[in-house]
Amino acid sequence: MTLQLFYFLSFLAVLSALMVVVSKNPVHSVLYLILTFFAIAGHYILMNAQFLAAVHIIVYAGAIMVLFLYVIMMLNLNTEVEPHKSKLLKIAATFAGGLLMVVMVGVIRQASETVPLNPTDTQMGLIKNLGKVLYTDFMLPFELSSILLLAAMVGSVMIGKKEIK
Amino acid sequence: MLSPALLFTIILIIVVFLISLVVAMYSTYGERKVAAFMQDRLGPNRAGPFGILQPMADGVKMFMKEEIIPQDSNKWLFILGPSIAMLTACMASAVIPWGKGLTIDGQFYSLQITDVNIGILYIFGVVSIGVYGIMIGGWASNNKYSLLGALRASSQMISYEIAMGLSIIALVMMTGTLSVREITEQQAGGHWNALYQPLGFLIFLICAFAETNRTPFDLPECETELVGGYHTEYSSMKLGFYLFAEYINMFISSAVISTLYFGGYNMPFIERFVSDPNLVSIIGTLFFFGKIFFFIFFFMWIRWTIPRFRYDQLMNLGWKVLLPLSILNIFLTGIVMWLMGKVN
Question: How many domains, in total, are found in chain A?
């Protein structure tokens, strides 16, 4: 059952991710991206990471993608107004994307040789354990990332201001 | 053959689904009666005694109307909009504990469909994807008024979600759990969270009004400016589903408010009079529904009393009043917990 679910979710994730790139209408792209996020959240639940799945849905599908959709609807982009890019740029983009894929495949090949720490621990992703690990073992990276987020927030408020005195 | 536990869960899902639909149906009737009472009118009184069959008549009317899909609209997304609105409205009921539980043949069955350990986050996630129904519908209609309504809805919901989440954080700090059932159990014996978290409760209540698009926050469908808002182009039952989803949302948010802040199914002093646990549980469920109906009435009461905000007032209230207040609430909760020695 879990295996079938895994294959279904993977299929859904890959298919909708492809559709994000292929579809001509930007609004459709965003909707497919939301579907991809849901499929990935399903994967998190399969890995017993319920908290991660819930936060993934709330933050990505519930907030960030709504803002994406908001902006795209406001701009009212469609195929007629889209500027056509030159052939050279398209070839360069394909080449760069291919290189990125080579790097990714290389990383994943390396990663498969590592052994999972607790393969049988089904309680690992529960919020209690996650909180304990975050606030003891990974205290410094956790705090540093919060400073990073704060800096980003201050920056966006500054950019959003109408005039800087 | 299904195991009894699974069978019970399936029956519970169907019952909860039907109850949400019936309550939402009769909320439309209740709304008209409450409005009539407040404006010194009679309200619907033609279909059946006291107009009690009015929701059926409305439903039949909705189904019989001609169904129009605008020529230049996006057909699939046009249908997807109300479907998502209905789906997300019904989904949140899965983690609400409707009662303590029943003991049948010595086996205990919980009156909650599933007790996930992140119940509050689940409700929050479902609420946050609920906005897509309105956004997709409003955009797919290919109508400027619909689009404006959809944009208003999305910016309003995102703004108020933040204050709502922060008000829940103070509650979670106090109770120490994200499971909805555990929060309810901790409130047994009249220790309602609303007494310990008055500010948090007030913020949550205001945000609940904004999230369900009820007056004074009904700018997305504000008919004096936007014709009908995001559902201008909708007709027949697709319009019906949008309106219906609003009433289901109202029912679910009333249930969430009573669970988180007003003790859920706990009824004080009931153990002194009734000893049978099954009977206690059933009376508790009825008491819970009493609270839900009070909050549904409260939603209507506000609607027919207070006029709607202007758009800039709405944004100011969300970002400059509710957000700082909810952060202040978190600080106060932390300080009080520290003074009482609950944190080391």
Answer: 2
User: Which residue range(s) make up the domain with A54?
Assistant: 2-125
Q: What's the ipTM?
A: 0.81
Alpha helices (H) along B39-143: 54-64, 75-91, 119-129, 131-140
Q: Are residues A155 and A95 in the same domain?
A: no
Count Cα neighbours of B274 within 13 Å in the Cβ-side half-sphere: 13
For residues A72 and A103, what is the distance between their CA atoms, to the nearest angstrom? 31
- Phi then psi for residue B110, to 5 deg, are -80, 140
- Domains of chain B, by residue range, sit at 4-339
**Shortest alpha-carbon distance between residue B290 and chain A (Å):** 31
CATH number of the domain residue A26 falls in = 1.20.120.1200
B129 and A57 within 8 Å at the Cβ level: the answer is: yes
A66 in B contact zone (CB under 8 Å): yes
User: Is A31 in Cβ contact with B118 (below 8 Å)?
Assistant: no
Instruction: Per-residue pLDDT tens, chain B, 344 aa: give them.
Output: 678 778 888 888 898 889 988 898 888 888 888 888 888 888 888 887 888 888 888 888 888 888 888 777 778 888 888 888 889 888 888 888 888 877 777 777 777 888 777 888 888 888 888 888 888 888 888 778 888 888 888 888 888 888 888 888 888 888 888 888 888 888 877 788 888 888 888 999 998 888 888 778 777 776 667 776 777 878 888 888 888 888 898 899 999 998 888 887 877 777 777 777 788 888 888 888 999 999 999 988 888 888 888 888 888 888 888 899 999 999 998 898 888 877 65
**CB distance A74–B150 less than 8 Å?**
no
Distance CA(B280)–CA(B277), nearest Å, equals: 5
Task: Count the residues in chain A.
Answer: 165
